[in-house]
Amino acid sequence: RHYSVAAQSQLRELLGQQLSAIKEAGTFKAERIITSSQSTQITVQGSEQRILNFCANNYLGLANNPEIIAYSQQLLERYGAGLSSVRFICGTQDIHKQLEQKIAQFHGREDTILYASCFDANAGIFEAILTPEDAVFSDELNHASIIDGIRLCKAKKQRYKHRDLADLEQQLRSSDARLKLIATDGVFSMDGNIAPLARIVELAKKYNSLVFVDECHATGFFGATGRGTEEYDQVMGQVDIINSTLGKALGGASGGYTTGPAELISFLRQKSRPYLFSNTLPPAVVGVGLKVMDMLLSSSELSQRVQSNTQRFREAMTKAGFTIAGENHPICPVMLGDARLASNFADQMLTRGIYVIGFSYPVVPQGKARIRVQISAAHTEEEIDRAVQAFIEVGRGLKVIN
Ligand code: PLP
Question: How far is the CA of 118 from the centre of ligand 1 (A)?
Answer without folding.
Answer: 5
